[in-house]
Amino acid sequence: MGTPTHCPYCALQCGMALHDENGTGTVRVTPREDVPANGGGLCQKGWTAAELLTVPDRLTAPLMRRRRDAPLEPCTWDEALDRITAGIGRLRALHGPDAVAVFGGGGLTNEKAYQLGKFARVALGTSQIDYNGRFCMSSAAAASGRAFGMDRGLPGPVTDLAASGAVLLAGGNPAETMPPFMRHLNEMRDDGGALIVVDPRRTATARQADLHLRPTPGTDIALANGLLHLALAEGLADEEYIAARTTGFDAVRTVVNAYWPERAERITGVPVPLMREAVRLLARARRAHVLTARGSEQHARGTDMVTGFINLALALGLPGREGSGYGCLTGQGNGQGGREHGQKADQLPGYRRIDDPAARAHVAGVWGVDPDDLPGPGRSAYELLSALGTAGGPKALLVFGSNPVVSAPAAADVEERLGALDLLVVADFVPSETARRADVVLPAAQWAEESGTMTNLEGRVLRRRRAVRPPDGVRTDLEILGALAERLKAPGEWSTDPEEVFGELRRAGAGGIADYSGITYDRIEAEGGVFWPCPSPDHPGTPRPYLDRFPTPDGRARFVPVEHTGAAEDVDADYPVYLTTGRVLAQYQSGAQTRRVRPLAEAAPGPFVELHPDLAARLGIEDGAAVRLESRRGAATVAARLTDAIRDDTVFIPFHWAGEGRANLLTNPALDPVSRMPEFKVCAVRLTPVHRG
Ligand code: SF4
């Protein structure tokens, strides 16, 4: 039957079994029927996942530069670890503990995310830790925390969607990013339910929708407020629910009064009849969901954009009603768990605030340190990257499970900052673009070579199981952190056993928002996953957390008024076209993994810009021709792909590639004031055809 586990990629965490054919090391993937998220389905990425185990440039020995300008060369583990600890010691002595920073990832297991946060605070004593999840769904997390007192992906099991009567999906394209998820929406539609998609592009998901609203990029707040205005005008709000289960509605009512339909249409470009139909479909369904994803979250007002959609869901009485609610389609494999256990700049395990004295005392007790010795909040991901090597900024960076050279906004500046460091250390299993710039590269075990837990987009804690032995010379991230902690003479225990680390994580998170106290490896095994919060061994877990009350001090969800202000950077005469970025089916995130999988590389071999034929004609750009795009941050050159699936004032580039087609050379690092999310989804560019001789 193979080893039952889950996919290495996205937050759906599809169940799969890995079969090591007769112990030959050739691994085959089969989908699992017993995992509700995918129910026997996989996408191209999942089907080909085993090829990750045999990528040709797999790292199997540490690499080090003997001199700053020397190439990376193989070295022993002792040499690599000595170099790292000597560098850390020197920089800390010169500049203090915040001279050393840590950058984590939303694909790390819960155990690694936990251990990385502890390593930063205890072994390094630094406040400077954040992770790439800040670039993913941090706006949804911030908006959910503000509205509901908690942030936990979907409001219930993913199978609830199939029983929904209507789903409004804002800024998500699961037909490409997580195709097996579509089975739940398709079941809903087969039963007469309606899918409403909000997206400037006619994506693969939008093509399957019953209704497609195509707003101008950056206008989601006006759209959400316009929808709520219509709901109120048509008497579709659930006044009884609003009175019984929420606070703050009057202020929202006042704000949305000014978003009358014609004004909302003028700002967003979405025709009033479409908005009206969307509201009616949602309000008249017995069960309904409002979902957001990166398209509505990766903005300099991303928290408010999500809040606009949450306000709509609350006014319709959806959150806390069985089979209904607001949810976020988390992106990275452990996007949910990765933000719960302390690798965020402002948080401790259990999703606790790092500036909360009670949380500090509790966690310090588990770690065996004095709470006063724990550092306070640090810089958020982009602020951290842009401070590297500056006066007062970190001088060393340790990167685990991330490739910011490709995934960070204003990527050329980030690359320059990495180059200004005294010490860059990267742990990875392939030489990613970030690893190639490192002073020391540590070869790490990957996905199927180690055990751990992941928390999927439902908030369900799952087990990833080791299916094959890692190659000789490779260590797990837990072993790397343990070895470094030992050399740094860090206090406390530094287990390298995932189950033991999970036990410590449960103690550290006990009593917090993300309480895993009652979850064990055995329970996950027996029950096929456990939903958090699960505060005790006899607790059944919490598939639908808001049915009785919201975890706010008064038990009510909070409306928050939000006003449209537009994108941080609007189009003008110099940069007259909107750029939006996103994903394609055959690639995943920075592409460090999927670009190395042959069938995926063949299916999606390189970057392109999607533009409308009318825009292309105006600019003299032909299908397939090279196009140079310029923004105020930089320039990229990619192939043109003409399609009427995009507005004629907007172009789209997927962000999975490095080199001259790197989308993030163009993107705007303007940050959301609450979530510190950069504005990946909209900036202003100009396009010119490239005539290559
Ligand atoms: Fe993997 Fe996501 Fe594809 Fe499922 S949808 S197979 S989890 S990449």
TrEMBL record:
GO terms for molecular function: 4 iron, 4 sulfur cluster binding; metal ion binding; molybdopterin cofactor binding; NADH dehydrogenase activity. GO terms for cellular component: membrane. Pfam families: Molybdop_Fe4S4, Molybdopterin, Molydop_binding. InterPro entries: Asp_de-COase-like_dom_sf, MoPterin_dinucl-bd_dom, Mopterin_OxRdtase, Mopterin_OxRdtase_4Fe-4S_dom, Mopterin_OxRdtase_prok_CS, Prok_molybdopt-oxidoreductase. Residues 1-57 form the 4Fe-4S Mo/W bis-MGD-type domain. One of its GO terms (biological process) is respiratory electron transport chain. Keywords: 4Fe-4S, Iron, Iron-sulfur, Metal-binding. This is Nitrite reductase. It comes from Actinomadura darangshiensis.
